[in-house]
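Entry 0007
Protein: Growth factor receptor-bound protein 14
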Amino acid sequence: MSLSARRVTLPAITPIVLQKRVIKVYSEDETSRALEVPSDITARDVCQLLILKNHYIDDHSWTLFEHLPHIGLERTIEDHELVIEVLSNWGMEEENKLYFRKNYAKYEFFKNPMYFFPEHMVSFATETNGEISPTQILQMFLSSSTYPEIHGFLHAKEQGKKSWKKIYFLLRRSGLYFSTKGTSKEPRHLQFFSEFGNSDIYVSLAGKKKHGAPTNYGFCFKPNKAGGPRDLKMLCAEEEQSRTCWVTAIRLLKYGMQLYQNYMHPYQGRSGCSSQSISPMRSISENSLVAMDFSGQKSRVIENPTEALSVAVEEGLAWRKKGCLRLGTHGSPTASSQSSATNMAIHRSQPWFHHKISRDEAQRLIIQQGLVDGVFLVRDSQSNPKTFVLSMSHGQKIKHFQIIPVEDDGEMFHTLDDGHTRFTDLIQLVEFYQLNKGVLPCKLKHYCARIAL
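Output (structure tokens):
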């Protein structure tokens, strides 16, 4: 029989269809959005979907958080993690939530490692020649052959008890250890506390209230699989910088180069998303816009960058004045007093303005979105009803500056420096300090905003 006459029966090839699930994601104002997603979708892909659906600008700071209210814990879900796997570890009766918000500090340690690894907390297993820079420390974390040791005192919650004990801890690639004898690092004095492979690192949101922690800077190890509060290994640092150092080092030891790849290639998702198909970046035409001058009989291209910037600022101020006029007139000419009042209220529609929130709430919002230099918000002052407060982050600390109103020739202005620099409204003030450091410790860079889904 010829080969052409033979019949061969092949098995039917069925396409692989990924099972879809519906997940619910919450924003800070507790609005939510349901998404139908494939089972292999990553946290980064979920963020991309929400960015596109809500027309947000993608600055790579959008983050998915796992929130566990019954035990007061929260963690960043890493960009590469599978969201359905995270949900599969939740108990049936737990009211856990996924939150979507900005986290400017997510990869800040790659940009400014000097803020994350204080000298007094870092040592090395082997002898080193000369000083080791924070950048070299970071490279050691990503290396499989060498590693730095993070050490220091932490408060640890004793298993099955309500009491906390201050103990000397040592973080190595193999896990977290504590010393049974003071600050000794001898092997016979080190006792194993926790590993990273089957646990996730969480930050405590209400450690003092829920767990009787001695400070507000708590974090803990929680097993991947569902478990009760007894399975938690609770720790507490003396200050935010210390907690940030421990948590960052544990993330680096747990995920290593994967974190660096997430930082360098934010669009490499598991579910086939690519930068070409989903990145809401500016188009070529928008990036190639040029400044034009139409004031004369003939239009001309403004080639001088300084002149172009000056024209842009003037145009912006002109539009703002027109906007103030529209807000205040309602069809009638606006008196100077009405215009001044409008200038004093124009900021209320801005995303960085948070009206009547407390100092503690302002600090909570800034910490939530990352203690990165220049994260800020503006709010009403609680102590003085006629003033405002600029709350901002610098050097992993939150600072508050009072914005004082000053009157000159019947017009009201805002100032941060006792009247040396004056602004007709808060928008001008914020825009100025976004471009100039002035009396502030750094420029304003990222505003805290409550977004709705």
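Curator remark: Residues 295 and 336 are 28 Å apart (CA to CA). Residues 305-329 form the longest helix (25 residues).
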